Amino acid sequence: MTTLTPAPPKRRPGSESLIPGTRSRTFWVYLIPGLALLTLVIIVPLVWNVYLTFTSYRGIRPPEWIGLENWEKLAGDATFWTSFANSIAMILAMVVVPTLLGLVLAAVLFDLVGRKFGGKLASFFRATYYLPQILPAVIAAIVIGWILRPQDGALNTILESVGLGGLAHNWLGSPDTALVSLMVILVWVQIGYPVVIFMAALQRVDPELYEAAELDGANWFQRFQAITVSIIRPEIFVVVLTGTIAALKVFGPVYTLTRGGPGDSTIVPAYYAYSEFFQSQQVGYGATIATALTIVIAIVSVVFIIVQRRLEKQEEAR
Amino acid sequence: MTTSTLDTTAIVTGTEPGSRAARKKRPVSRRPGAKKTAGDWVVLGFAILIGLLIAAPILLILLNSFKSPSDYASNGPLSVPQSLYTDGIVAFWERVDFPVKLWNSIFISGVVALGAVAISVLNAFALGIGRVKGRTWIVVLILLANMLPQEVLLYPLYFMFKEVGLYDNTWSVIIIFIVIQSAFGTYLLASVYGTFPKEVLEAAALDGAGKWRILTSVVFPISRPTLSVLLIFFFIWTWNEFLIPLTFLVSNANQTVPVAIASLQGDRLMDVTTTSASALLGLIPTLVFFLIFQRTLTRGITAGAVK
C-alpha cells in the first residue's frame, strides 16, 4: 500500500487522503469501532425510543401499539407546556445572563485588570470565576441548597442575625421563589464558562488595536463594542449554542433540589420525562416527552447554525 | 466545518491560563503598572466583589463542615468553628463508604477518558487525514451522541444491558460514556487532523510507513498535547455525570461520588453540619483535579506550541 515513489496526485477531490498513495476509502476500517459503538449505544436506542412513543408501555407487559395517542396527550398536557416554559427560564439563567455578564467580566479582566494590574491577577480572577463550573452540577446544587435550607440554612440565619428575619423564606420550597432560586444557582454554576472562553478568544485581539482606539479617544464602552464584541463573535455563538442545549437538557440540579416542585413550579422536560419513566411507569409517555425535547434541541441547533452561516456570509460580502 | 476548528480550539485551550498568549510575545505595553485612575480601582473592586460572591458558597461549606450542630445553632454560619469537629465528616464518610465511591468514580472516569481518546483518534484519523467520503455527515451523526438528551437512551439501554448482564455494572456506564465523550473528541480532532502538516505525512510515507505506523508513530505523538487536554476533559466530564450513573448503577457498591452524595440529601439523619460535610466531600476531589488540571494543561499546550 505504501510505495517509495508516491503516485502522481490525482485531482479527484475527496478520494485522496492526506497521506500520499493511500485512497480515502481504505481508511474506513478505522471508523469501524467508533461507528459500531455509536450504533449500539446511540442509534439503536434512539430509534427504539421513537418506536416507544407510539406505544402504551408500563415496563412489564410488552409495549402495545396505540398510534399517536401519546403525542395527542402531549399537545394538551399543561405540565408539559409548563416544563417548556421553565426551560425558557433555564435559558435565561444559563445563557442570557452568563453571556452578558461574561462579556463584561472578560473585557474587564482582559482590557483593564490584565493591563493595569497584571496578567497574574487576571488569571486568578478567571480561575475563581470558573470554580463552580468544575463541580459536578449536583454537588453545586447541594452546596447552594445547603445555604438555602428553610429552617437553619445559612442565608436565613444571616438574614435573622442582621435583623431582616422578616425576609427569611423557604427559598426552594415555596412556589413563588423556587424557580428564581434555581435560576440563581444556575447563573452561579454557569458564569465561569463564558468568561474563560471569551478571555481565550480575546488573546486574538491585537493590544495595539485597543491602544490606537484609546488614543483616538474611544471610551471603554466604545472599545468594548467595536473591538471586543465584534472580534469574539464566533465564541459568543458557541457559548450561546452549547449553553442553550445544556439549558434545555438540565436535570441534575432539579432532581437534587426540588424534584420539579413545589407543584410543577420548577419542572423541566428532562425531569418530567424521568419521572414518567421511573415514578409513574408511563414509559411510552416518558419516551414521547424525551423525543419532543430531542426535536426541540435539533431545531434550535439547526436554526443557530443557519443564522451563523448567514452572518458569516454577510461579513464576507462586506 | 471550517469555522468550527477555530471555535473548538478556543474551547479546548480556553481553560488553561494564558497558553495561547505564550505563543505570542507579549507586547511591552501590557506590563502592569501603567497609570491607574480611580476608576480602575473601582473596576478592580467590582471584580473582587464578584469573585467573593462566587467563592462565598464554597467558603461557607468549608467553614461549616468542621462545626458541631450545636456550635452552628448557637453561633451561626459565619463564625469560626469553636473546636475542630470532624464527626460530621467521619459519619458521612463511613455512611456512604466513601473510599468505594471514590474508587468507582476514578475507575469509570479513567477508563472512559482513555477509551474515548482512543476512539476519537481512530475516528479522526479516518475523517481528518483519511478524508473519507461524506465525512461532514459522519461527524454530524457522531455529534448526535453529544446533543441528545440522555433520557431518550435510558429505557432501550436499560433493556439491552439487562439482556447481556451488564445492568448495575460499572462497565455499562463506561461503554455509554466512551461513546458520548468521543463524539466531542472526534469533532475536535477531525478538524485538528484536517490541518495536519502534509510534509510530515509525506516524509513518513516515503520512508515506507504504512497507515497504522503513521498513526502510531507520527500522528499520535505529534498530537499528544491536544490528546492530553481531551483526556482531562473527558475524565472530569465523566466524573460530573449524574443521570446515567443514577439509573444504571443502582446498588450501593457501584455508585459514583455525585450519585452517592445526592441520594442521601434530605435524609432525616443528616443534620445541618453533616449535610455541609457531605457537600465538602463532593467538592474536594474536583478541587484537587482543578489544581492538577491547570498545571498539566499549561504544560501540554506550551509543549505543543513550541514544537
From TrEMBL, chain A:
GO terms for biological process: transmembrane transport. Gene3D superfamilies: MetI-like. Belongs to the binding-protein-dependent transport system permease family. Keywords: Cell membrane, Membrane, Transmembrane, Transmembrane helix, Transport. It holds the Pfam family BPD_transp_1. SUPFAM superfamilies: MalF N-terminal region-like, MetI-like. It is found in: Cell membrane. It is a multi-pass membrane protein. It comes from Labedella phragmitis. The keyword Calcium does not apply. This is Sugar ABC transporter permease. Residues 84-306 form the ABC transmembrane type-1 domain. InterPro entries: ABC_transporter_permease, MetI-like, MetI-like_sf. It comes from the Bacteria.
From TrEMBL, chain B:
It is a multi-pass membrane protein. One of its GO terms (biological process) is transmembrane transport. The keyword Hydrolase does not apply. Keywords: Cell membrane, Membrane, Transmembrane, Transmembrane helix, Transport. The chain crosses the membrane at residues 41-63, 102-125, 137-158, 170-193, 214-239, 272-293. It is found in: Cell membrane. The keyword Transmembrane helix applies. It comes from the Bacteria. GO terms for cellular component: plasma membrane. Residues 102-293 form the ABC transmembrane type-1 domain. CDD domains: TM_PBP2. PANTHER family: ABC TRANSPORTER PERMEASE PROTEIN MG189-RELATED-RELATED, SN-GLYCEROL-3-PHOSPHATE TRANSPORT SYSTEM PERMEASE PROTEIN UGPE. Belongs to the binding-protein-dependent transport system permease family. This is Carbohydrate ABC transporter permease. It comes from Labedella phragmitis.
